[in-house]
Design brief:
Layout: H1 2-11, H2 14-32, H3 37-45, H4 54-71, H5 73-78, H6 88-99, H7 103-138, H8 141-157, H9 163-177, E1 180-181, E2 188-189, H10 203-222, H11 237-246, H12 248-262, H13 269-282, H14 296-311, H15 313-319, H16 325-336, H17 350-373, H18 375-379, H19 386-402, H20 408-426, H21 431-455, H22 463-489, H23 491-504, E3 506-507, H24 509-529, H25 534-560, E4 564-565, H26 571-590, H27 592-607, H28 612-632, H29 643-653
Parallel strand pairs: 3-4
Antiparallel strand pairs: 1-2
Helix pairs in contact: 1-17, 2-3, 2-4, 2-17, 3-4, 3-10, 3-16, 4-14, 4-16, 4-17, 6-7, 6-14, 7-11, 7-12, 7-14, 7-15, 7-17, 8-9, 8-21, 8-22, 9-21, 9-25, 10-19, 10-20, 10-21, 10-26, 12-13, 12-14, 13-14, 16-21, 19-27, 20-24, 20-26, 22-23, 24-25, 26-27, 27-28
């Protein structure tokens, strides 16, 4: 009870509320930009966590992750463009309602549903904390290591398409996370004598590289506004509220269902919205209007999305196994703040756990209120041509990446990871699986080392370990068996599966490129680690085995089954990657602030076709932002050739 009240007192403090509101506002903007989502947004905020009080920093992150499913509703309803994978089902009825002039009704119903879903999700999270506390306290490092593997296996199995692609991505994430010093021995691995790699690749760089830059490049290639054909908000704001209250049972069921699904690693928003949409159709007496503008088709998925974000925190906080990609970055934020998830969160840091829960609930309420009160001005952001936003977002990405180690290596490896991200996005390989594997790598290796240290090599004979191992095996073996039984019972299902397989059985040169990168990296790692001590190479060999086994299975499937050759058409994307390297080097060579001004002005004027006034205003605004943040965060940007002169000029005017 004391911890509960202490958390309530903490979130009501002015400092906590300020940072929570900042996270909410950033989350709304990030949610509106299609493709970015929680992973990129949280990665941008990670540098700001340094030096913060843990409760305040986590509050800011929770503010962002809680409202992104709310912010992405704008593009889903007004434009028929999902703001993220978790808002795809909302398009089915939200966009038809907008076409009927009832966009305001759909938006208000979505925002109120999201608020209720988020609060219900926070309540479910608090119940899980109380119920699961004895179980978590009984777990040793051996069981926690197996839980990590269970989480990875579920993520891989539910990644969609080829399960071995998900497994390969997870394994490759584990391997990349193992770069640097081994926690058990202190020996360095896979550094290739590059100073930057001795401490490993920072999470900020990986998160922004694998998600943010590929999405920005993809939108740049399209070179259009977020919204191409505007829909008016129309009427029905109050009617949307009435619709929600008239369908409270549906809201409650969808919220609880979303929370439970979110707790399963690998599922999350991209699945739960369609599940609840299907539930709404099946539970309706009259489903004839679904897909044509039925408000229940908006209420159900929106209730589940925000609840799902809360649900994904359950395995993250209790076991250190992120339930989604955004939860993986949140886990990294916890580690940056010196907080170890797991047992400590329900024993010594129980007040911090309640702070997270209160922050989730409050952020959902604030996010919904902001959206309802400022629906019209926020919706105008969707009409901005994305190329106008590019210099702003790119500057923020470079600023965030540079805070990792404040060296040129941050920019270089950001580009390298982005190239991998572009390839994985183009070939439909699961990027969240890679990121979750990367984030879990350090913790999993620590649990593995502690298991050997405490129990010797007989740790895998513990009953809890055997039980979790059985779950992992069942998770891989059972789905194919059930699928075959279903095909025998329903012959028409076999025809459908063949049609789906014909669509999924495609291969491109990008697929082979990813296979070459992963296979080559795993082979190099095996050779590099072979003569190291047992504790230094034990965990990397597990990751290497996962990668090589998965690649063998993928290649064998390509050989055994007929695959249609397709083109990923990533030539222009790779041109932008090369351009990024050139720009990043310019930032370092000529000076961060000077290059920001010149690049932003030229890009806006000649590529975005903005006016001189707009181009100059945005470029100057970015310079002011960087100078201000440099002073507030005590950041020394790369001065290069011109920044000393520019900064001295600026100081003369201050």
């Amino acid at each position: 009870m004391i911890e509960f009240l202490s958390a309530l007192d903490q979130i009501l403090s002015i400092t906590h509320l300020t940072y929570l509101i900042a996270g909410v506002l950033v989350g709304l903007v990030v949610g509106i930009i299609p493709g970015l989502g929680g992973i990129a947004g949280m990665s941008l905020l990670l540098p700001f966590l340094y030096g913060m009080e843990p409760s305040v920093g986590l509050g800011m992150l929770m503010g962002l992750v809680a409202v992104i499913p709310t912010g992405d509703t704008f593009t889903s309803v007004l434009m028929g463009i999902p703001g993220s994978s978790s808002s795809q089902a909302t398009v089915m009825d939200g966009f038809p309602l907008a076409k009927k002039g009832q966009a305001a009704r759909a938006l208000s119903a979505a925002f109120l549903s999201s608020m209720i879903g988020g609060v219900v999700g926070a309540i479910v999270l608090s119940v899980f904390i109380l119920v699961a506390r004895p179980v978590v306290l009984a777990f040793s490092s051996a069981e926690l290591f197996m839980l990590t593997l269970l989480g990875l296996s579920v993520v891989a199995a539910l990644s969609g398409g080829n399960v071995y692609k998900g497994l390969a991505a997870c394994g490759f994430g584990l391997l990349i996370g193992a770069i640097g010093g081994a926690p058990a021995t202190g020996e360095f691995r896979f550094t290739m004598d590059i100073d930057y790699l001795y401490d490993g690749i920072p999470l900020v760089v990986v998160g922004l590289g694998i998600f943010a830059l590929p999405e920005i490049i993809s939108l740049l290639v399209k070179n259009s506004a977020i919204a191409s054909s505007p829909n008016k908000l129309g009427h029905g704001l109050r009617q949307g509220f009435k619709d929600v209250f008239a369908n409270l049972p549906l809201v409650g069921k969808s919220s609880i269902f979303g929370s439970l699904i979110g707790a399963i690693p690998g599922l999350g928003g991209s699945v739960v919205d369609w599940m609840t949409y299907s539930f709404a159709i099946n539970s309706s007496k009259d489903s004839s209007q679904f897909g044509k503008g039925d408000i229940r088709g908006v209420i159900a998925p929106e209730s589940a999305n925000n609840a799902c974000a809360s649900g994904s925190m359950i395995p993250t906080i209790l076991f250190g196994v992120p339930g989604s990609g955004a939860a993986a970055v949140f886990l990294g934020g916890m580690l940056l703040l010196g907080i170890q998830p797991g047992v400590s969160m329900i024993s010594t840091h129980l007040d911090l756990t309640y702070t997270i829960i209160w922050s989730l609930a409050l952020a959902n309420i604030l996010g919904a209120l902001f959206c309802i009160c400022f629906t019209r001005p926020i919706s105008l952001l969707t009409y901005i041509k994305f190329s106008v936003l590019t210099p702003i977002i790119l500057t923020l990405i470079l600023f965030a990446a540079y805070q990792a180690t404040r060296s040129l290596g941050d920019f270089i490896f950001l580009g390298v990871v982005a190239a991998l991200g572009v390839m994985m996005k183009g070939a439909n390989w699961p990027r969240p699986a890679f990121l979750i594997g990367f984030v879990l790598s350090s913790g999993a290796e620590n649990y593995f080392f502690q298991s050997i240290q405490f129990y010797g090599y007989e740790w895998f004979l513990r009953p809890g370990v055997i039980a979790i191992a059985a779950l992992i095996i069942v998770g891989f073996v059972l789905p194919p068996i059930l699928k075959r039984r279903k095909q025998k019972m329903k012959p028409e299902q076999l025809t459908q599966d063949k049609e789906q397989n014909s669509m999924a059985n495609t291969v491109s040169w990008t697929d082979w490129g990813i296979i070459a990168v992963m296979g080559g990296s795993a082979t190099y790692a095996l050779i590099n680690i072979w003569d190291a001590s047992t504790l230094t190479k034990a965990f990397p060999i597990i990751a290497i085995t996962i990668v090589l086994f998965s690649i063998v299975m993928i290649v064998s499937k390509y050989i055994r089954e007929k695959h249609t050759k397709v083109s990923s058409d990533l030539a222009m994307n790779m041109v932008y990657i090369v351009g990024f390297f050139a720009i990043a080097y310019g930032y370092y060579l000529f000076g961060f602030i000077s290059t920001t001004f010149v690049f932003s002005f030229l890009f806006l004027k000649y590529l975005a076709k903005a006016s001189y006034v707009q181009s100059t205003a945005i470029a100057v605004g970015l310079v002011v932002f960087l100078v201000t943040m440099g002073r507030v965060m005590n950041v020394d940007f790369p001065e290069g050739l011109f920044d000393p002169y520019l900064l001295s000029t600026i100081k003369s005017f201050i």
